[in-house]
TrEMBL record:
This is Enoyl-CoA hydratase/isomerase family protein. InterPro entries: ClpP/crotonase-like_dom_sf (IPR029045), Enoyl-CoA_hydra/iso (IPR001753). CDD domains: crotonase-like. Residues 269-278 have a biased composition (Basic and acidic residues). GO terms for molecular function: catalytic activity. Residues 258-278 are annotated as: Disordered. Pfam families: ECH_1 (PF00378). It comes from the Bacteria.
Amino acid sequence: MSLPVSTEPVRIVRHADKVVELRLDDPGRGNALDLRMAEALRDRAVEVAADPGGAVLLRATGGTFCVGGDLRAFAGRGAETGTYVHAVASAAHAAIHALHELPVPLVTAVRGAAAGGGIGLALIGDIVLAARSARFRLAYTAIGLTPDCGASWLLPRLAGPRRAADLILTNRVLTGEDAERWGLVSRSVDDEELDDAAHRTAADLAAGAGEALHAAKGLLRAGAGEELRSHLVEEARLIAALADGREARDRMVSFLAAGGRPKAGDSQARARESRSVS
């Protein structure tokens, strides 16, 4: 007898080695963040936070980590665009904050594209592993929006203000190896090794000295929780306000009409863009 296939876009998998896996599981859509996906992510993150085991592993099914906000869900909403974008961002931000405040180590595994909000989700981990072929791209300004999911809070702290500005303003693309050199990820690994390396890292942490790890993580994150929370509120406000404007609406429509590719003459035309970003 075959087991029923889950239709939930985000799942929790609890392993015998005390690793609790939070899995983005909508590969057909590149794990894009529409309202359903964002709310599922929020609800599952809160559930994991209530019982996080010894370590949490955040990863995605398929060849893409998360392409960011689903522009197809954003476009064509007219006067409701900003309201919808705010709802998506707020739900995703609740997940980001819950993951940031986990008392146990959080390991993130990034394969394929991490764009827009997918970057904030990827970088919220304590230890971030990336496949060498992974691609990190903010892409917000290409469609007239500003960063969300904590990207504008995390990037200056990880890469420094100059490199953060470069990533956010120019939409530069980084590979997994680039991201390691820039300090965005802990290390890059061969693509075929990513899943095993990430689970092994989480399992080793789960088997470690729990009280010491909890205390050490508390020191590393001391005082940051409320600062991040207020920053997320401002990110959601700004991206929603811009989404209501003509420039962003026109750019989203143009972006989708071009199949998610940059226009001729774009300084980033050499990079392949996703159809989604937030």
